[in-house]
Specification:
Layout: H1 2-17, H2 24-31, H3 38-58, H4 67-82, H5 85-103
Length: about 100
């Protein structure tokens, strides 16, 4: 009986003091009906990929200086304050394309 009490107490305390997982999928499971819809999750995943696209656009090479990427990188924060990541990515891609065309003339 004593061993059973100690084992159940150890199991209880380990579950009480275990740190919960803070990944979205685990949080959504804990809050079930309040989780984001599949459509909203898909939209957010797209926005996340656009953030990665912005990073790749602005930070292409570490060993050389790219003044055009530096220029768009400097403006990225203010654009992200006003627009979604995907809208910002479209504007930055177009700006870099046009700036590179001007620079090559």
């Amino acid at each position: 009986m004593h061993k059973l009490l100690i084992a159940s107490l150890a199991l209880f305390t380990s579950s009480v003091f275990a740190e919960p997982s803070y990944q979205y999928s685990n949080i959504a499971q804990r809050y079930g009906k309040h989780a984001l819809s599949e459509a909203k999750l898909t939209e957010l995943k797209m926005q996340a990929e656009c953030l990665v696209g912005i990073k790749k656009l602005n930070f292409k090479r570490k060993d050389s200086f790219d003044p055009i990427a530096e220029w768009t990188s400097f403006r990225t924060r203010s654009l992200l304050e006003q627009y979604s990541p995907c809208e910002t990515l479209v504007m930055l891609e177009l700006a870099q394309k046009q700036l590179r065309a001007i620079a090559s003339k």
